[in-house]
Structure formats: structure tokens, C-alpha cells
Amino acid sequence: MESEIRRMREQAGLSQGALAAAVGVYRQTINAIETGRYDPSLTLAVRLARHFASTVEEVFHVDNE
Amino acid sequence: MSTTSSRLPLSLPNIVLIGGSLAGAVVTLVLGYWLGAGVLLILGLGGLLSALLARRAGASDWMRINAIEYRDERDARLAGHGFAVVGAWALALSTLELVAATIYVGAVTLTASVKGADASVTITFTQSATLAIAVEALAALQLFVLALVWGIANTRAVRRG
User: Fold this and answer.
1) By the 8 A CB rule, do B55 and B33 touch?
2) Fewer Cβ within 10 Å of end Cβ, chain B: N or C?
């Protein structure tokens, strides 16, 4: 699944590790989401969206599947 | 599948595996079986080293999953997929083991002979027969326990949706 995580993270000036710590996952999980290798759980998707003050639809592009 | 608790120095399965191996090494050493104690010690220390390496900040996915040190939901999901395959193969191989053990018992241990006009059958149990039956019983028990755990795990997974 494609997402805006990398763009939003870089805009916020965060490292993958910092974002991972903020949402309670491991750095490699953020990397896997950014590269489209891992689809997060609903809980994590909401947590990530909230972190960037966005909605899940704005962060994750399900229609592009 | 739960992730590693931060309160514990190692994951619970690793505590059981490593603790069991090291405790077994001590008991075996007290009994004077040096080789067995050495094997269990290497097993325990190898597991401990693997777990500690997997808990480092830069540990790879592969290392964390193989060392049973899950850190987040992705680790748990990857491990779940891996264990599902392992479980299916373990069940299949255990079934084959039981089949092989049963055939072995039939071929090696039961010496049946038909004698006389009334065709009475004499079955002779040798020492190797008893051993083979024990092997078969062990294979059957292993398959039973594996199937039981498989059923419980699947039932729980389905209930959780």
C-alpha cells in the first residue's frame, strides 16, 4: 500500500527512528511502511495519521492498490 | 502472538528455553554426564547470545524473528506467518513419523507364525519389539499433542477474528 508517510516524516524533520518511537513501533516497521512492504494494522494506521494531524485516507492510498 | 515485554530482559519463550537448557545442564553435570551437560550448556548459551543480539537497537528483522524477540506488530505478524508454515509441516511430518514407526513395528517386532491344523497364531515380543512399540507410542503421543496444540491455536485465532 502506498502512503505519504515518508513525505510527511521528512516535512516534520523526523528520522525513521524518532517516528517509530513516537508511535510505538520498531524503526524497520516505519521503513517497511514507507517502501510499501508492510500494511500497518488499523491501530497503527490511525496512530500514524493522528501523529501528522491527518486522516487515514490522507496518509494511506488504498485506492491505488 | 505477543510482542516482547519491555519489563522482561528476554522474551518469555526465550526465558523458558534458555532457563530450561541451563538448568538441565546443571542437573546433568551433577549426574556426571559431562557430554550431555556440555551440549545443554552450549544450547543455553547459544540461545542467550542469540536473544541478546536480537535485542540490540540495530538488530535485523531476520535476527529478531529467529531469536523469538518480537518488538512490534510487524514482528508478530511475520512470526505468525512463519509459525503457520512450521506448524503445518510439523503436523505433516509427525504423521509420516507415526506411519513409519507403525510400519517399523509391524516389520521388525511382531513375529507371527501360523502353526498346526487349527492355524493358531503365535506372536512373539522380543526386546527390540518393546523398544519399537515405545518408539511408535512416542510418535503417536507427539502427533496427538501437536494436533491438540494446533487445534487450540487455530480456535483461538478464529475467535479473535
Assistant:
1) no
2) C
